[in-house]
Amino acid sequence: MTTAPYRATERTVPTRSAERASYNRELVHAILDDAYLCHLGFIRDGAPVVLPTLYARVGTRLYVHGSTGSRPLRGAKDPGLAVCLTVTHLDGIVLARSAFHHSINYRSVVVHGTAREVTDPAERAEALDTIVDHIVPGRADDSRRANAKELAATAVVRLDLDEVSAKVRTGGPNDDPEDLALPYWSGVLPVTRSYGTPIPADDLTPSTPLPGYLSAH
Amino acid sequence: MTTAPYRATERTVPTRSAERASYNRELVHAILDDAYLCHLGFIRDGAPVVLPTLYARVGTRLYVHGSTGSRPLRGAKDPGLAVCLTVTHLDGIVLARSAFHHSINYRSVVVHGTAREVTDPAERAEALDTIVDHIVPGRADDSRRANAKELAATAVVRLDLDEVSAKVRTGGPNDDPEDLALPYWSGVLPVTRSYGTPIPADDLTPSTPLPGYLSAH
């Protein structure tokens, strides 16, 4: 398994804050693995469309799934669909003395490429398990896997990690020196994602225990 | 101020789960107001691009800002840039007995339209204040506002709410009747956004009190 950075291309080198960009493979993968909701952009009838969708990573491949009736997934049939898949973690609100230097701390990954429908049954099955386990580790084995009818209704789409970059901002505000004595509080308000107490389904058999992978939350 | 729903168009009527779509003005506005990070999609050199950015709403106008050097904001100069702006709240992970019926609870808004650079000084100033106050209410008045040089370096872009829709999923899993007796736990794992303890800047004058709008978090 290579550990070389991803290649920088014309469209993965940002015009702004280029010092925040990274092509480091481990960083890209860590940011992707720490989320499961992405925003997928594609072109429909000449106009951009951005839709939220779930995803998971297997090595250098990302998988997205959905109904065979969905427009972007239909569009991913051969020869594929040009997409931009973006994942963003909001980590903090950066309050500077000056309005201008307000910012956010974030970790984002932007993937450019061609999404292609996966037809191989084994790859499809692995991708679907991985999407479930990526969101709730251990859940795929603790659920009824898709039957033939459900599999036939599910499209799996693959996007290879090749033209991909990360961008990260961390740390405190970068106020100008002449603003440091201003009386405004400055610093960072941390933002995190939290999980609440699991809510059983109304029709759950009452004796069903809460699985360990949920009590850990 | 009208309370009529937004108009449904060919591209705002989803092909899937259309029953989750809404054009209700109050719902659309509430979802937009409950977030401040969106994913903005546009077309560059014939390919889709999706970038995270901050935004705020004023009536039926959305504002996005950034450096005058950023590519999408440069592209919003007259006659404007075709964009799709999407906001998604992840509210819960829906665990069904069947892998197929796993889902997420979410609230999303998708806006299609043309982003146009704002040149009017008063509208620009209001938009910049609103973006700051939308993220941290009360902060615009408690910071040094942008000076002429900073204003000259800041592009403000406006996207009118016209072709816009919301999509919402709430509630528990929708398992098939024949799966209800399966032994797998089913229900919803709630997901929320949380704020941590504010972290003062290293160079903050120690006597600076934490403002009330931050201690509320």
UniProtKB/TrEMBL annotation, chains A, B:
<dbReference type="InterPro" id="IPR012349">
    <property type="entry name" value="Split_barrel_FMN-bd"/>
</dbReference>
<dbReference type="Pfam" id="PF12900">
    <property type="entry name" value="Pyridox_ox_2"/>
</dbReference>
<protein>
    <submittedName>
        <fullName>Pyridoxamine 5'-phosphate oxidase family protein</fullName>
    </submittedName>
</protein>
<dbReference type="InterPro" id="IPR024747">
    <property type="entry name" value="Pyridox_Oxase-rel"/>
</dbReference>
<feature type="region of interest" description="Disordered">
    <location>
        <begin position="197"/>
        <end position="217"/>
    </location>
</feature>
